[in-house]
Amino acid sequence: MSATGTFSAQFTPKIITVLREGYRFADLRADAIAGLTVAIVALPLSMAIAIASGVGPERGLYTTIVGGFLVSALGGSRFQIGGPAGAFIVLVAACVMKSGLDGLILATFLSGFLLMAAGLLRLGTYVRFIPYPVTVGFTAGIAVIIFSSQIKDLFGLTLTGGEPAEIIAKVQALWAAKGTVTPAACALALGVVAVIQGLKRVRPHWPGMLLAVIAASVIAAVLALPVATIGSKFGELPRVPPAPALPAMDMAKIWAALPFALSFTLLGAIESLLSAVVADGMSGRQHRSNAELVAQGAANIGSALFGGFCVTGTIARTATNVRAGSRGPVSGMLHALFVLAFMLVAAPLAGFIPLAALAGVLAVVAWNMAEKEEAWQLLRSSRADALVLLVTFGLVVFRDLTEGIVVGFALGGLVFISRMSEAAEVEGETPFATDDGERVICRLRGPWFFGAAARLGSVLDRIADRPREFVLDLTDVPMIDSSGVRSFLLLARKMARRGGSLTVVGARPQVAEALRHHGLKARFAADLAALGAPER
User: Fold this and answer.
1) Correct CATH for 424-531 of 3.30.750.24, 3.40.50.12280, 2.30.42.10, 1.10.8.60
2) Is residue 184 packed enough to be buried (19+ CB in 10 Å), middle (13-18) or exposed (0-12)?
3) Could you tell me the pTM of the whole model?
4) Of 1, 43, 2, 6, which Cα lies nearest the Cα of 340?
């Protein structure tokens, strides 16, 4: 087995790699600055995502502290930042609504073991094969769902009977409550959005989200604005995380939590590996996908033990970490410790944060998540890509996240098969006479798999009707699958029934091996010159 395929090469955490390379005080200083920068971004986001998910803001902090630390300490990416992610809001809220907080913690716990199993089975490589239109459609759908979940707090609406989870029913309920708009909430939310976007343009290195939330909190407190705050809805935040404890479980609870655990696993694997790929592109490094999945699994188990919920790699915070000058995983570990320090010192201050301010933060997150330019390019590039994107987007928004990914992936696979089958072709026929009778050379190009075999098999049959010897030139066939092999077996039997023969020339070693392994009765030659046939 090659070095790249050994267990050590695939599963050694990046923190060990960084330490082996030599870790100096200058690196620690750079990582501390990067970690503090990311913690400033993560602090309001963690609480906002937790509230939008239907749990208390402290759960988001537990998730960031425990999960974020373990993702960096054990992960296969130098720069990955773990924590609660906006993409999970819908799934987490649905799990809480159906199974309660205990069910959410159990589903997170089970998901951790599933992610670790996926990593140890080396499935991380295959997760990255999800087609690009699927990821763009999925991300855009998540952005729409996040924004729709924040409309209530953005406008300070009062809903009777709770807020529906299904988006059409949600919009109808929100419209019915339009008469309860709170002007102060609208003003605060709009101000937060304006400050974040304004600082992004004039002072891009400033922590716009945190500054906007602090400003909104001060204004709301000083002017005694009639808006809901974290304190009025959730009470005072605890100063320390709880002691670790196993989630309550029995077989009935496990079976109830398992579907959500599977969804958390699938989405977490996709989100974390996409984030790691983004970090690779920004830094020029290469992550270890299977080690990353194992670390994500350990982080979810740890988060559940401390009362948190599902953890994944977060693209925005990971990108912030790289841009802030991180040297390695230590910055991610320090970011978690900085958030812990906030809980220990300043947790009571979080009670003054208006929910409208956090809704403004998530509105900006949703806008940034929607890859608008990429989606527009895909919609214009081809009908097939546009179809995959739109179907994925529609299913995510109106049906289910997992269903959107699975159906989108299946459609993307069909598009790929169609395009690959079109790349395969039969390049005419070249007859030439020999002492034994007429031969015909048929040149094949492209991968010869089930899609190509089904489309071009009839062409080969028609050509094989005439000559005594049929020569297949496979020089330009890079691969063949069992369906492709079977088409040649049927061709050889047809030639044998007519008293003719089949000759294969130019087959690459792996192609020739596949043909011989399936028992193809044919003559094999290295090239056309060996047959006395004219060269191309």
Assistant:
1) 3.30.750.24
2) middle
3) 0.74
4) 43
Domain ranges of the chain: 3-370, 373-420, 424-531
For 204, the 3-state DSSP assignment is coil
pLDDT band at 464 (very low <50, low <70, confident <90, very high): low
The answer to whether 82 touches 112, Cβ cutoff 8 Å, is no
Radius of gyration from C-alpha coordinates of the chain: 29
Q: In angstroms, rounded to a whole number, what is the distance separating the alpha carbons of residues 125 and 4?
A: 13
Q: How many CA atoms lie within 13 A of 186 on its CB side?
A: 7
Task: Please state, for a pLDDT cut of 90, what percent of the chain lies above it.
Answer: 31
* Euclidean distance between CA atoms 323 and 317, whole angstroms: 10
CA atoms within 13 Å, Cβ hemisphere of 187: 11
Q: Distance between CA 67 and CA 38 in Å, rounded?
A: 15
Q: Which residue has the tokens 């707090």?
A: 153
Instruction: Look at residue 306 and tell me whether its pLDDT is greater than 50.
Output: yes
Task: Decide if 245 contacts 302 (C-beta within 8 A).
Answer: no
Identity of residue 186 = C
Provide the β-strand partners of residue 425.
445
Which amino acid, one-letter code, is at 2?
A: S
User: Is 309 in contact with 105 (CB distance < 8 Å)?
Assistant: yes
Return d(Cα 151, Cα 273) in angstroms, integer.
30
Cβ neighbours of 434 (radius 10 Å): 12
Residue in this structure with the two tokens 């049959």, named with its chain if needed: 461
Residue 28 confidence (pLDDT): 93
pLDDT digits (tens, 9 = 90+) for 375-386: 888 888 888 889
Instruction: Say how far apart CA 455 and CA 470 lie, in whole Å.
Output: 20
- As a three-state string, the secondary structure of 357-389 is HHHHHHHHHHHHHCCHHHHHHHHHHCHHHHHHH
Q: How confident is the model at residue 462 (pLDDT cuts 50, 70, 90)?
A: low
User: Do the beta carbons of residue 384 and residue 216 sit within 8 Å?
Assistant: no
For 31, the token pair is: 């990582």
DSSP 215-252: HHHHHHHHTT-S--BHHHHH-SPPSSPPPP-PPP--HH
**Residue 488 identity (one-letter amino acid):** F
Tell me the three state secondary structure of residue 118. helix
Of 510, 536, 512, nearest to 525 by C-alpha is 512
Please, what's the b/e burial string for 358-369 (b: 16 or more CB within 10 A of its CB; e: otherwise)?
A: bbbbbbbbbebb
Q: What is the DSSP-derived secondary structure letter of residue 477?
A: -
pLDDT in tens, 144-164: 888 888 898 899 888 876 777
Both tokens of residue 124? Answer: 């991380």
